[in-house]
Amino acid sequence: MSGSQGMHSPVAQFEIKPLIELSFGGYDLSFTNSSLFMMLAIGVSAAFLISAMRGGALVPGRMQGLAEMMYEFVAEMVRSNVGHEGRPYFPFIFTLFVFLLFGNMLGLIPYSYTFTSQIVVTFAMAAFVFVGVTLIALFKHGLHFFSFFVPAGAPKVLIPFLIVIEVISYFVRPVSLSVRLFANMLAGHTMLKVFAGLAVMISGAGGLAMAGSLLPFVALIGLTGLEVLVAALQAYVFTILTCMYLNDALHLH
Amino acid sequence: MKVLENGISQMNDINDHKGAKRLADIERRLDKLQADRELKDRPSQAALPEGMAAIMGRVATELVAGVIVGTFIGWMLDRWLDTSPLFLLVMFFLGAIAGMLNVWRVFTGRGLAAGYFDERKSASEVKSKGDDRT
Q1: pTM over 0.90, yes/no
Q2: Smallest Cβ distance to A176: which of B38, B62, B70?
Q3: A150, B23, B26, B131: which one has the fewest Cβ atoms less than 10 Å from its Cβ?
Q4: Which residues constitute the domain of residue B68?
């Protein structure tokens, strides 16, 4: 890990390091850097929202304006994608969005850890959404929910075949939901570290090569901007897909 | 101003013998407003990012995820029924088909909605949504 070695591995940043070793009943429950940043995401977002809304001014200041913008953004997303019946689920969806947004953004700070770059984390979240949405649909529509998988007006011979395809395509949801977020974060952060490592490596050569290191450095600045966009966009995509799944569950076609 | 006059005349009407009829009329119009609002509040399809890269990313994820999920289900079925590799092979291809089906949904504007639905209804919904966007 020494600087004189030149480049760190660009994937070293994804390493899970236990900070407090804990083991319970044979399970490894260590408090890791990933858990730390999840708690930080919760803490920072809660602190931000509470402090921003403390004043509760009629004419919002900057911070309050930002908090209200986030709230209205998610509220509008739920309203336009799920409709009236989506209201009870707004707190969950808002929490999901804020947690992901802060997780992605905190991960962009140097030396921090991006927990959304781990498939276990994103898959656990997607699986929770998937199971929850399926249960909502089952409670609301009962056995009628299974008509979801039966194509209307298909030839009788093909129906069993089509049902299997539909069921698979339903189970694809949590996978594609989690893979999309995790892959974007993983790829983006690897790319950042590759360019940063390149800049350090070239400048390490000294002399005229120092000037050459400017090139990856400038690219790095641009990429960081792009990653901020991706961080916000992927939090948005995850949330809006959750809304769409919820809409499917509440209003079967 | 005309609206105000109408309102005043309606209020006066309530007091006379036509009042009941007027009230019914107002009720009917309120119902209509409520219905219109609910219609407007009906969910539309989500506005996912529509850049070329975003769509390509989604197509790639859908295809790969379809194969992964299909193969995984097949593998589990094989372990359960001890029929390796029958279901693994069958479900691999069905998974690929499911992935392509999802891609078809992406391109026909059905979003990621699983399941079939009334084609005519969905076509009109998709159309009205396209109008919204322009």
Answers
A1: no
A2: B62
A3: B131
A4: 52-133
